[in-house]
Amino acid sequence: MTAKRVLVIDNEEYIREVAQICLETVAGWEILTAADGRSGLVLAQSEQPDAILLDVMMPDMDGPTTFQHLQANAATAYIPVILLTAKVQASDRRRYASMGMKAAIAKPFDPLQLASLVAEALGWSL
């Protein structure tokens, strides 16, 4: 079985690095990273990851706008998206789910739990 490929789109370098190290180490997944929505859209289309972890609050193009672009493109519309956000109240979760996102993971997250949270949201085994 080939390793899952996950794209992490977050403007905070520290978050990208921690997510990459943890997901590679704990789950053995291949991690791609992008520092903003626009480069994330390009990577999503060219690399076709199995899932995307997407920050909500980013300059220029925020997470929900990036998600709308992903959904509008037939080449990326099928890729499941999990939001990384500081806002995870019940109303936010309902809104994100109604937009078609698979889940929302609270920031800051426990690095050692990140892989299991992603796997659980997507129905993947670790």
Automatic annotation (TrEMBL):
What PROSITE patterns does UniProt report for this protein, alphabetically? RESPONSE_REGULATORY (PS50110)
Please report the stretch or stretches of sequence annotated as the Response regulatory domain: 5-122
Show the Pfam families listed in the entry.
Answer: Response_reg (PF00072)
Q: Enumerate the InterPro entries for this protein.
A: Bact_response_regulator, CheY-like_superfamily, Sig_transdc_resp-reg_receiver
Q: Does the keyword Secreted apply?
A: no
Kindly list the positions at which 4-aspartylphosphate occurs in this protein.
Answer: 55
Keywords, comma-separated and alphabetical: Phosphoprotein
Its transmembrane ranges are none
Q: What PANTHER family does the record point to? A: CHEY SUBFAMILY, STRESS RESPONSE REGULATOR PROTEIN 1
Q: What is this protein called?
A: Two-component system response regulator
